[in-house]
Amino acid sequence: MTPRPHAGFFALTLSLSLAATQLAAQGAIPVADQFERLHFRSIGPAIMSGRISDFAVYEANPAIFYVGTAHGGVWKTTSNGAQFTPLLQDRGLLSIGAVAVQQSNPNVVWVGTGESNNRQSTSWGEGLYKSTDGGKTFAHVGLRESKHINRIVIDPRNPDVVFVAATGPLFGSGGERGLYKTSDGGKTWKAVIKGDPDTGANDVRISYTDPDVMYASMYQRRRTACCVNGGGPGSAIFKSTDAGETWTKLTGGLPPSPLGRISLDIYRGSSNIVYAEIEAAGPAGEGAAAGGGRGGAAPGASGLYRTDDGGTSWRKVSSVNPRPLYFSQVRIDPKTPDRVYEGGVKMQMTVDGGRTMETSASLAIHDDIHAIWVDPNNSEHVLIGGDGGIGVSYDMAKTWIFEANLPVGLFYHIGYDMEIPYNVCGGMQDNYDWCGPSATRQ
């Protein structure tokens, strides 16, 4: 499949060696300056876009939001997606795992580098960055050896208090792994939950009704060139009732160890109502150790769990947990605890607390949904991000608008043809093959 869409839709890294050789042959430019005059430019494709890892939306005005992408850096819109501005492009950091915006000041944004989805093509980062001027400039604020960061949450009472779920290196042991807390805006950090050399933090949530109450999940995993071990005794759910200073491991009604990846969300109306999407061991080597399958129903004890008593007891409400190592995202509608969204190959949605599950709630939007945001002031407004970019719904997932203006695709191979001007072609991750013009003003 090789569509030929409109001009101006490619963003590929092109070879500069030919141009440099020509400049050198002319002898007009000193050797030391030859490459200084050569610059990269974006030629797309926005029409197909690429993998989205996280959203950070300013709730008082949701037209302002930040987008973290798996291989295309950080982007910002102040026009509800009509136009996106690239941020943090001067550090060579294209892989983003998490973004968070301060709700009392949308100019303060935190970025955790290193996508935390466990693919062979997953790239690592170099810790945490913070901007206080809306993304114009960024400062590095720690956790350089975390490599992959999956979640950042800001205490709503004190924006200097921030928690970071650092998953740690994917292809090796050690590094900065675990749940980290700063109380001084990123100047210093301490590990409040520390795992073993292969166990880091996957998720962390703060209650809206009682911010002293928090839930976090730890995740043991290791990837090699061929395989992934996506579980172990280090994976677990923890709860804090003192603003993240001390933590208690939760067990009542949860599947027994070993567990795999665990995603969490707290209902906005009650700190006692929590959903956990849990990868657990299944029959015949499936489940946590194998990373699960691509479909909806998960083997064995894997699935969606719910507590209504603050984690004292849990009950399984659904067996749907699509390919946990790659997705593991759960979001509760802020207006009702029975409407829940899950990431996956197509977005999953229940409106009855898990008794039934719509397994294709994202409809025509690209498969593989990694990021989900539901407007706390309007449940009809939903943002999703997947392997093919951003979708937005204003009718609670009945219909979707695709944002075809974010050039963040992941190319595995590129080439060009002999036309004048030449066209650039490439194979994209989960997005077929695309060809488009190298020179255009559109």
Explain this structure to me?
Strand 26 (369-374) and strand 27 form a beta hairpin. The model is unreliable at 1-20 and 283-297 (pLDDT under 50). This protein has one helix spanning 17-26, and strands spanning 52-57, 65-69, 74-77, 85-87, 96-101, 109-113, 128-131, 139-140, 149-154, 162-166, 178-182, 190-193, 199-206, 214-220, 222-223, 228-229, 236-240, 248-250, 259-266, 274-280, 303-307, 315-318, 330-332, 340-342, 348-350, 369-374, 382-386, 389-393, 401-403, 411-416, 423-428, 433-437. The strands form nine sheets. The chain has a four-stranded antiparallel beta sheet, with no helix packed on it. Strands 5-6-7-8 form a four-stranded antiparallel beta sheet, with no helix packed on it. The protein is globular and about 75 Å long. By secondary structure, it is mostly beta strands.
**Category from helices, strands and their pairing:** mainly beta
Proportion in helices: under 10%
How many strands in all?
Answer: 32
Low-confidence stretches: 1-20, 283-297
Radius of gyration: 22 Å
Distance between the termini: 24 Å
The general outline is: globular
Mean pLDDT: 89
Number of discrete helical segments: 1
Instruction: Report on the biggest sheet.
Output: 4 strands, antiparallel
Strand content bin: 25-35%
Q: If strands are numbered along the chain, what order do they take across the biggest sheet?
A: 1-2-3-4
